[in-house]
Amino acid sequence: MMPLTYAWVIRRYFSDFRTVLDIASGNGEFMANVNFDKRYEVTGVELFDPYIDNAKSLGVYKEIVKQDVREIAFEEKSFDVVHASQLVEHLKHEETLALIAKMEKIARRVVVVGTPNGHYDQDEYDGN
User: Fold this and answer.
1) Which neighbouring-strand residues pair with 64?
2) Cα gap 44→108, rounded to integer Å
3) Residues 36-77 pLDDT 10s
4) Contact between 116 and 86 (Cβ < 8 Å)
């Protein structure tokens, strides 16, 4: 993994943690870069079946839960890290605030939110 890439920065940030909830895990390729050595016990949350299938095939997730990110339901303090990357910019403002509040309850230690800097217009992608 190349230093100073986004995946490298996230992996370094996760270094003191063990369990990760990856919200909107997508096709799993980002987490495959972060968790290439299966150092972390990662649970993914994704709604789009083709992405779930691809993510499962990569073998870096302990489990992938099919769930709408706006309705996540996990026990309080059940993961060291709750991570959402490239997600909140696709939600309404109120939905984002509600999601972050849920993430804070689920996380034992830290919440990590990654989002583009500035506007990024995106249409349908991969049929999703």
Assistant:
1) 44
2) 17
3) 999 999 999 999 999 999 999 999 999 999 999 999 999 999
4) yes
